[in-house]
Amino acid sequence: MTAQHCDRTRIFSSDRFSSGRFPFDRCRPTRTAGFTLVELLVVIAIIAIILAALIAGIRNMQTQARATACLSNQRQLALANQAYATDNNGRLTSPRTDNSAIVGSGLPTIPNTWVNTNSALCSGNFETHKSLEQGALWDYLGATPQAYISPMDPTAVSSNDLTAPPTNCPSGRVRSYSFNAFVGVGALNPDYRADDWWSFPDPNSADYPDQYRGAQFKTVTLSQIPQPSGTMSSIAEEDAYNFNLHGFSIRVRPPTGLAGDWIDTPALWNPGRVNISYMDGSVDAPNIIYRELAEIMQPDESAPPIHFAVETGARPAHKFMTGILLPGILRPEIQ
Predict the structure, then answer these.
(1) What confidence score (pLDDT) does residue 192 get?
(2) Mean pLDDT of 253-257
(3) For the residues of 164-209, what is the DSSP string, one character each?
(4) Would you tell me how many other CB atoms lie within 10 Å of the CB of residue 117?
(5) DSSP structural state of residue 228
(6) What is the spatial distance between Cα 73 and Cα 149, in angstroms, rounded to a whole number?
């Protein structure tokens, strides 16, 4: 801040047109040291705003980097399933997570589950690396446990050391992903469709539109999937069972029933988005999880999302998922 400091020394100047000598005062500007309190507060406020913006930007970049790595893992899952099918006469892996027979279904033991939790769970329903090793895709994923874990998963195991029950239990979840319950199923019992467990959809139901009734449902091989590029392969999921039990499923019509019922709910790690892969190996993170739906799916943020969350109203997210679980068979317009 500048101020005028006046030196009262009398200085004389002569002028050839003047006969006298006239005194005058000369004032010189000076600078006082330091900042005022207001100036300091303004500077501090500006620095705080810049730091907040930088921190938010860094966090956003970190989230995007983790999301990209998560999607890369899922791309590898889809491609591994394709490779498995190539080596097995076109047959895809089963989305179920154990190979035991389903009680009352008449199904024999399932030989090609992508992971197998039989004899591979620790106390408390904690999955071990043994379930990954026993699954059909272990070798196709390079026998690498990291391929099954999303870097966005806050519940993930902290060590990649291979674990097995009963005493050698992991420090967290060893798997972040589930396969689509509507793909790789229908080979053994026509009464069981999604995940070889649920009896929907039923293309022969009286509620089904006439033009689609009787449509093929079996998705044992890739050639039996009407639209592979639009059909979901895998999804990031955080299951309340402590591990992701069987394939990812939502209740679809027909048969008629509770509309908007999410039997399984996706992981909510990528805010507003769902990380998925498609059967052709492409990946996406569609922005479909709006705030009200997230609160329905995960009413307690300290706990995993719940099962059987019901999306009310127009149900846009439920209809979107219906459209990618098995396009050409599942009809969003009748959900």
Answers:
(1) 77
(2) 73
(3) BTTTB--SSBS--EEEBTTSS--SS-TT--GGGT-----TTSTTS-
(4) 25
(5) G
(6) 8
Rounded distance, CA 260 to CA 263, Å?
9
Sequence spans of domains, the chain: 50-334
CA distances from 217 to 66, 202, 276 (A): 36, 8, 22
> Max CA-CA distance within the chain?
130
pTM above threshold 0.85: no
In which residue are the tokens 């200085």 written? Answer: 11
Per the CB < 8 A criterion, the answer to whether 271 and 287 are in contact is no
Convert the pLDDT of each residue in 58-73 to its tens digit. 888 888 899 999 999 9
DSSP letters, 116-161, are: --TT-EETTTEE-HHHHHTSTTTGGGTT-GGGG--TT-TTB-S--S
Burial tier of 255 (Cβ tally within 10 Å: 0-12, 13-18, 19+): middle
**CA 161, 165, 168, 170 torsion-angle sign:** positive
What's the pLDDT tens digit per position in 124-162? 889 999 999 999 999 999 999 999 999 999 999 988 889
Q: Whose CA is closest to 231, among 298, 198, 185? A: 185
Nearest to 321 by CA among 239, 248, 255, 224: 248
**Which position has the token pair 């309340």?**
240
Residue type (1 letter), 150: S
